[in-house]
Amino acid sequence: MRLSSLIIALCAASLLACGGAATPAASTADAAADVPVAAPVWTNAPAGAQTIGQGQTRQFPLTLSAADVTATVAQVDGVEAAVTADGQALEVHAGYGAATSASVQLHLATPAGGSATVSVALTVAPIAWKSALEWTTDGPEAREHGTLILDETADRLLLIDGSGYNPYGTPLSDVWALDLATGTWTQLQPTGDVPAAAASRRVARIPGKPLAYFFGGYVANGAGVKDLYRVDFSTPQPVFTKLKFTGGPTARSLHAFAYDAVTDRFFCFGGVDSAPRNDLWTMTLAGDTPTWTKLTTINKPSPRYGFFTGVDTVGGRLIVYSGAQGTATINAAQDTWVLDMRADAPDWLLVAQGDADNVPPGRRNGCAVWDPSGPRLLVFGGTADAKTSQPGLFAFDARPGHAAWTQLTLDNEPAVRSSGIGIYDPKRGQNLLGFGNTATGTFQDFQTLGY
Questions:
Q1: What are 37-54's pLDDT values in tens digits?
Q2: Is residue 61 left, alpha or beta, with left meaning phi > 0 and alpha meaning psi from -120 to 50?
Q3: pLDDT of residue 360
Q4: What residues contact 225, with CB distance under 8 A and at least 6 apart?
Q5: Best label site of 136, 229, 317, 430, fewest CB within 10 Å?
Q6: Is the confidence at residue 296, as pLDDT, over 50?
Q7: From CA 417, how far away is CA 394, in angstroms rounded?
Q8: 3-state secondary structure (DSSP) of residue 185
Q9: Does the structural domain 128-450 have CATH classification 2.120.10.80?
């Protein structure tokens, strides 16, 4: 074999040993480029249009196809949307000006470059005054400052005591149940330590249990009391138990009394005895033995009574708006405060001054309803001069970081009044506002605000 032929053969063998080929192979990068990037998926995305009412907040559970998927939201006019801080839900809030149809866009992305957009269609129901329940017989007489308790298990509303108008200012001693399904009233015959006639008993409901506690109120001639009662409404006829204690707040009425299930504490704020008060107390129970502790806060509302309150059982907050600062003249407060009941050292936060946009004019003794679907505090009626009732329906957006008032101008608004009472009915998603009086009349009704 010639030397040149040997060299060619050796070179060919060398190329084969090293994996050489006559046709170059595609690079690793080129091969990877041919593999499609998986798009992220919202695995439990809601199907079809979702209904939400103006002023309401809804959360949609958010389970994504991988842990490293990021989600961002495109805002829609009149609708706020964001992923919750824990990443577990898409939270949507419909403003009072939101259109009846809207769509929220959730954008998903992965580090590898995968992306997807998921749309949540919304049907926004306008808030409105709906049907009214009115009676002159076969129901409780007209009154003010009654106490309401919602009994979800029996689908009924309990009305306890209040102040009547025959003659004006006469404390009542009666208990009624409103069947929420049929709109019919039944007078009950409670047992146990049935309280004497009184009004303005403030109630603290125990969530998830057929139990509530009452503190304070006023009797004949407006004299305040410092009685504490438990009511068990697990049976058709409620059972009252009076709890004895020493110390604690002074006798008072037109105050606030609330319970926080997380800390298992009751809170009492303000009200009036011989003068307006702004003291803050906590109460704990060991069996039937109450223990009261007076708290000192860095910030606090001015002394006041007849203010509007809401109890946020989810966030552990007490909301207080307005109220009378004087007795000879009302001198109504204009501000809105929030108490963090779960803080190691509870303190007040001023969240709205009187000169902020849409803050309602100051007043006392109107109808306040805490609506957790907002969450929001609804304010209707009340008086600034002890003679005339303030017009208008107002809603306070109580979402943390969103504190703001909105005046709601709605058709078919019922007669404005003072000293009304109200409550939220979660089964039907409606607010019931009723009773109270004007300078020329009294009311035996519940007006419905809903969707």
A1: 899 999 999 999 999 999
A2: beta
A3: 95
A4: 198, 216, 217, 218, 219, 251, 253
A5: 136
A6: yes
A7: 14
A8: strand
A9: yes
